[in-house]
Amino acid sequence: MAILPADMMESQLSMIDLLIAMFPSASELEIPESTREGIDTLRDWCQDPTETPTGIPSSLSLAVCLAVTTEKTIQVNIKISLQLENPESKEPLPITYSLRQPEWMSKAEVANMAAAMPPDDVFAAFEYIRDEAMHFLETRQTLTETATRSSEPLVRVWFYFPSLSTRGKRDDLVNYASDYSLTGFVLAGKPGVLCLEGISTDIDAYMSFIKTNSWGDIPSHQKKVSERFRETADIQRVFPGMEEITDSLGERSGQRANRGDMQALEVWLKARGLHEAFENVIF
């Protein structure tokens, strides 16, 4: 192979200059001493290309440490060719790059990422690597959280409302429950009852969301809800999803037909093995 002509060599050196500008810190860009010496020699030669320099390597090597997060980086090893594939070539050999395995990825995971890297465009490769590495870390974090959550015990928590009537607020209690992997039921009226099945952290997060967002327009002194009972021993889900049972539960009484039939609720809960909860929540 023949050494690049001076104009092509300047183009390759300009690529290195661009990388130095993009990654100015020594922690971001690693340039071996042999590469630095080669760069200096080639710059001098490009200024006066009358004599072909000796001892020029076939390529210059450097390494970019791409920041994925504040704590995680991934190293991209880069080789910039200094030779023509044949004397008739009008372009230098393309820049090649590869990934060094970080401690937080397996060899197979790195190989899978590298297999889909954009070819012949190191800057597109940088963007791809960052995006894929970030996605990898997010996916792993989700799997870790899921595994942790799955090991947490289920609880069943009962909340009591002196009054629960607004349709939109009731709908929110039902509609947002699935976002927190919760099951249970809502009973509107005077009193109102909310039953939630799930892990404690999800229930706490759900109630915090409801109070902050769904009830954000309600004065704090009117957000009257209290936890009446929490079941924690060997809990299994009784409810397949989250539903409102107000309109399907017995007769409704009271001047404005908003006073729930507590006897019907007692029967309904007893049929589901939850009679103890009724006694703790209503009385």
From TrEMBL:
Gene3D superfamilies with a match to the protein in the record: Ubiquitin Conjugating Enzyme
Every Small nuclear ribonucleoprotein Prp3 C-terminal domain range: 158-232
Family annotation (InterPro entries): Phi-like (IPR017359), Prp3_C (IPR010541), RWDD2A-B_C (IPR059181), UBQ-conjugating_enzyme/RWD (IPR016135)
Name of the protein in its database record: Small nuclear ribonucleoprotein Prp3 C-terminal domain-containing protein
